[in-house]
Amino acid sequence: MKLYDIDVVKLIGLLDKAKGNVYLITEDGNTLNLKSKLCQLYGVRALLESAKNSTVSAELSVENPEDELMFINYMMSK
Fold it and tell me: Angle at the Cα of 37 (from 3 to 35), degrees rounded to 5?
């Protein structure tokens, strides 16, 4: 799922609740497992740098169907 207009604090809260792996796929083709705090920091930095140039095209890939529903609900609640 593509990321648009995200609240970083809420996104990290959802990542903490996720039961399975959640991957951030950057525009450079890097895949980061966001269950890792180090990858979360790197991923957020990459998103913020892309946002400066208005070129954010990152995607989330979620393994667990329950987690996917949680992220979809978050994205739809905006």
Answer: 65
**Angular region, 43: left φ>0, alpha ψ -120 to 50, beta rest:** alpha
Helix (H, G, I), strand (E, B) or coil at 8: helix
Four-CA torsion 35, 41, 47, 52, nearest 10 degrees: 170
Token pair, residue 75, equals 């994205």
Residue where the block lists tokens 């890097």: 30
- The answer to whether the predicted template modeling score (pTM) of the entire model surpasses 0.85 is no
Beta strand 31-33 pairing with 59-62? unpaired
pLDDT one-digit tens code per residue, 9-45 = 888 899 999 999 999 988 778 899 999 999 998 888 8
